[in-house]
Write a structure and sequence with these properties.
With about 400 residues, the chain is of the alpha/beta class. The chain has 15 helices and 17 strands. It has a six-stranded mixed β-sheet with strand order 2-1-3-8-7-6, sandwiched between helices. Strand 6 (about 125) and strand 7 form a beta hairpin. Helix 2 packs parallel to helix 7 (about 155-175), helix 3 packs across helix 4 and helix 8 crosses helix 9 (about 230-240). The radius of gyration is 28 Å and the shape is elongated. The chain starts with a strand and ends with a helix. The model has no long low-confidence stretch (mean pLDDT about 95).
């Protein structure tokens, strides 16, 4: 079935509001064997009617978001009624619910607000537990070649509960029978897109009924595989065999969330000492719910004197080797390990740029150290040619992956 999403609202096109509806609807309908074929965004006003007419002629299911409110630019219900040749009437139950909601909040009823109780003849009212504007469902009429039409409110906090309670049960009845296609995203850390494609692309494309896609992000690659369950099972084996250390999730977790979970499972703790990343590593870790159980402390020792005073890095070592070196990174990690008593410690020191950096240590050079209460201190030497924010992200991505690989070896 061809599915179209029509998002309405000038605020979306002006960039004042982020359009999250397409992502939400696409993810919710996929398990039913439905996929969005097209998405269109139009401003408030007459453009809604024109777009609805054009899209209804080519689709079997149309979702319209927004334009159901009380103001003059909210004309979605009127446009739908006109398109289908249906009269509007005031629904007594909807009017009563709107009146009760306003009264309980101390607001006065107006004719404009009561517009939201107007319902096209034959439409199914979709209750809105978080707002005054109900959603509407108009069943497809094969003799008139009309689509299944869902009119949904604009605010996500209203649309999403309505979709769960009212829209999905209807879709389950009209979706085509048979085994639905499934999707899985394999997230790989610290590897290039072309490397991934070369390693697993031919094998994955040889699988039956498969759809394959790649999405490169800073410090990671997403491999998206769509197909029946049996195909995904084989794809899982292929990806895990090729990248046993770099595959960090198939459930959408960020790398820092995976690391925090692994630390908690092992009753282990971590502390960090940062120079070039300026606290970004601590920021990522502490953004994760439950991080307080595993994250002990973070030190931002940007100046050389701070490395000595806070972490105990010898001043003579910095003078002899330089701050951006393997030796100083290791000393920072062992220093914070000693100071906090954490199970593991990570340290970063590098040249973020865009200026500075001698020929031997060009801009983008970074050393990442990992120390543990058991075992030797390890240091990775990397170079990330990127702007400062991207440099920080790539460096911390490598640091998190470094710790994750260590945790994999200590199960």
């Amino acid at each position: 079935m061809k599915v179209v999403v029509l998002n309405t609202g000038s605020e979306l096109l002006l960039g004042h509001v982020l359009n999250t509806h397409l992502t939400y609807i696409a993810q919710e309908i996929f398990p039913l064997g439905l996929r969005v074929d097209r998405q269109v965004t139009v401003p408030d006003g007459p453009a809604i009617g024109r777009a609805l007419a054009a899209l209804s002629a080519e689709a079997e299911i149309v979702f319209v978001t927004g334009g159901l409110g009380p103001t003059t630019d909210d004309i979605t219900r009127e446009a739908a009624a006109e398109l289908l040749g249906l009269p509007l009437h005031e629904d007594a139950q909807v009017a009563a619910e709107i009146t009760l909601r306003l009264r309980s909040r101390g607001f006065a009823m107006t004719d404009r607000i009561l517009r939201q109780a107007q319902v096209p003849k034959g439409a199914v009212v979709l209750p809105n537990v978080n707002g005054t504007a109900p959603g509407l469902y108009l069943e497809a009429v094969s003799s008139k070649a009309t689509p299944h039409l869902f009119l949904l409110p604009g605010p996500p906090r209203e649309l999403q509960p309505m979709f769960q309670s009212s829209v999905l049960p209807i879709l389950e009845k009209i979706a085509p029978p048979g085994e639905g296609m499934k999707s899985r995203i394999f997230r790989l850390a610290c590897v290039g897109e072309s490397v991934v494609e070369k390693a697993i692309g031919p094998q994955l494309l040889a699988l039956p009924e498969v759809e394959l896609g790649y999405c490169a992000r800073m410090g990671e690659v997403d491999v998206r595989v769509i197909g029946p369950a049996r195909t995904l099972a084989v794809a899982d084996e292929i990806v895990r065999a090729a990248f046993p250390l770099l595959l960090f999730t198939t459930t959408g977790e960020d790398l820092e969330a995976v690391v925090v979970r692994m630390l908690r499972e092992r009753s282990a703790t971590v502390a960090v000492a940062e120079s070039c990343t300026g606290g970004y590593l601590a920021h990522r870790l502490t953004n994760v719910t439950g991080a307080s159980a595993v994250f002990l402390a973070g030190f931002v020792t940007y100046a050389n004197a701070a490395k000595t005073a806070a972490l105990g890095v010898e001043e003579s070592l910095i003078e002899r080797c330089g701050a951006v070196t393997e030796e100083v990174a290791a000393a920072m990690a062992t220093g914070v390990l000693r100071k906090t008593g954490a199970t593991f410690a990570l340290a970063t020191t590098g040249i973020a740029g865009p200026e500075g950096g001698p020929e031997a240590k060009p801009v983008g050079t970074v050393f990442i150290a990992l120390a543990g209460q058991e075992g030797e201190t390890t240091v990775w030497h990397r170079r990330f040619q990127a702007d400062r924010l991207a440099f920080k992200h790539l460096t911390t991505q490598s640091a998190l992956q470094m710790l994750r690989e260590q945790l994999l070896s200590t199960r």
